[in-house]
Design brief:
mainly beta, sushi, Complement Module, domain 1, 158 residues, three-stranded antiparallel beta sheet, disulfide bond, 2 domains, glycoprotein, 0% helix, Compl-Cell_Adhes-Reg, rod-shaped, four-stranded antiparallel beta sheet
Length: 158
């Protein structure tokens, strides 16, 4: 006895290849989607040749991340640079106020597990005058007789 392959959800698929009596088939969603309910994650092949529960496949809904407002950054703001606000794969960029520069990872992405991929330490906007991690180094280049003296300045973040 076989039940045939159950109908997969829109934006999803069926896990499993055994569709015979007593077999279970699992519903799964594509990356960026999740099951709308945790109740209908599988069906079982019955003696009648039908899947039970005999309902429409579950819905796969887009993954969303929390509103970025909860991660306010002093002297900065987040700007959407890719995708739809707070949906899977959306990318936000930290924009610092004039006189401030970003420290840490500047771009974050909404992941399939409904979280933003914040690095540690968290991104921040720091005042240029408060920075103690930058030093100026002057390097004198080799001067050849036919060349003029050259200097370059490197700003190195330590």
């Amino acid at each position: 006895m076989t039940c045939g392959m159950p109908k997969p959800p829109v934006n999803g698929s069926i896990a499993g290849q055994d569709f015979t009596l007593g077999a279970r088939a699992m519903y799964q969603c594509n990356p960026g989607f999740r099951l709308a309910s945790s109740l209908a994650v599988s069906v079982a092949c019955q003696l009648s040749g039908r899947w039970s529960p005999n309902e429409a496949p579950p819905r796969c809904i887009p993954v969303t991340c929390p509103d970025i407002g909860h991660a306010a950054v002093d002297h900065g703001r987040w700007r959407l640079i890719y995708g739809s606000q707070s949906q899977y794969d959306a990318m936000m960029m930290l924009i610092c106020d004039p006189g401030y520069y970003y420290k840490g990872q500047r771009v974050i992405r909404c992941q399939a597990n409904s979280t933003w991929d914040y690095p540690e330490p968290r991104p921040a906007c720091e005042s240029e005058s408060e920075s103690t991690s930058s030093t100026m180094h002057f390097v004198k280049l080799l001067q050849l007789p036919w060349e003029s003296l050259s200097m370059i300045i490197h700003l190195i973040n330590v």
